[in-house]
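User: My advisor, Dr. K., asked me to get a structural model of this assembly before our group meeting. I'm new to this, so sorry if the format is off. These are the inputs:
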Amino acid sequence: MRLLGALVWLTALWQATGAISWLAFKHVEAEAWNSTRLCRLSRQRHGFVKRQEKLCRRYRDVMRHVHTASHQSMHTCQKLFANHRWNCSSINFAPNYTRDLTAGTREQAFVYAQSAAALMHSVARACSAGTIFYCGCGRTPRRLPDGNFKWGGCGDNTKFGQRFARKFADSADRRKSKRTSQQERLRAKVNLHNNRAGSKAVQKSLRIECKCHGVSGSCNIKTCWRKLPDLLTIGQRLQRKYRAAIEVAMRRVGSRWQMAPATTAMGRFSKDDLIYNAKSPDYCVKDTSFGSLGTNGRECNASSTSHDGCQSMCCGRPYNTFTVEKIERCQCKYVWCCYVKCKTCKRWVDVHECT
Ligand SMILES: *[C@@H]1O[C@H](CO)[C@@H](O)[C@H](O)[C@H]1NC(C)=O
Ligand SMILES: *[C@@H]1O[C@H](CO)[C@@H](O)[C@H](O)[C@H]1NC(C)=O
Ligand SMILES: *[C@@H]1O[C@H](CO)[C@@H](O)[C@H](O)[C@H]1NC(C)=O
Ligand SMILES: *[C@@H]1O[C@H](CO)[C@@H](O)[C@H](O)[C@H]1NC(C)=O
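Assistant: The format is fine. Below is the predicted structure of the whole assembly, which you can bring to the meeting.
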């Protein structure tokens, strides 16, 4: 019994130092920025592993963008999951995560991919904005463009962003790959795969932006460069992958163990797909250790049949309906010159809440 207790405790400790601990970097206060103690403090308090502390010392001016990424990661996740049963609230606990973000669930897969993407995105943009000493504009594609444009301008440096994000985000799990326990190896492999899927999503979101040149706006010649969309757009792409995520397990192939889909019915998965190795609970009832808040008191949409609908959100339980008064801007008119004038309207709306 005591051995079991120690085992549970050890597992808990392992989980406490998971690979997305760096998201706790969002707790850093602004005044710490110019202090040389930042990197050491981050290891003590903000969940950095040793390798990350080293990267912090080496790339001091990139840390500001790691900070941005940890904030954006949280906001984007919470925005994308606002109307889901699991609403990404447990990301706030960084670095002391609950089991929804350590056991190897689909939600964990999303958070890993998304935070790796946020890191790459933030650094890639900072490079092209000229705020990092070590990098500049992204390389223009070798392939010559079709049509009347030429590559130019300053594209986002996804290459540097990706290199840095990999070094930084993969640190904790790379170390664990050397461990022998099958379960630990699987978890580390899954995390690393999902980090990659995150950077793939950033890469695939690159767009082309152009500027016209030529006499009086005739656009005879266009100069184009590659630009990243905002993180929310990339997050939406990853959320689609989250819905289609594939369960994996260690399976014997010949004499070797390999990570493979848990059931053959699931087919194969590609580098873009999110994978997970532990089934999620339905998040209907409160289980604080698993980061499940339960849906009691959550607002739902009575006319929706999707995840935000009362049927799904309340898990089949009844819901209460209140009528509340909403105040909004309405009957807006453009006033010459140059503003918009609105009236305030009051409107009664029905609000539904799960019991
Ligand atoms: C750090 O920044 C604070 C204000 O942001 C300033 O008062 C302080 O002098 C700075 N310290 C160093 C060592 O630059
Ligand atoms: C998530 O839902 C809970 C209610 O279950 C609510 O208290 C919390 O504010 C929500 N968090 C976010 C980030 O939306
Ligand atoms: C995480 O847990 C550790 C150890 O229990 C504690 O010292 C630290 O303050 C916690 N961090 C946060 C952000 O809650
Ligand atoms: C509720 O769901 C319906 C159908 O999906 C949608 O048209 C409507 O905008 C939703 N209402 C709110 C308040 O989100």
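One thing worth pointing out at the meeting: Confidence is low (pLDDT under 50) at residues 1-17.

User: Perfect, thanks a lot.
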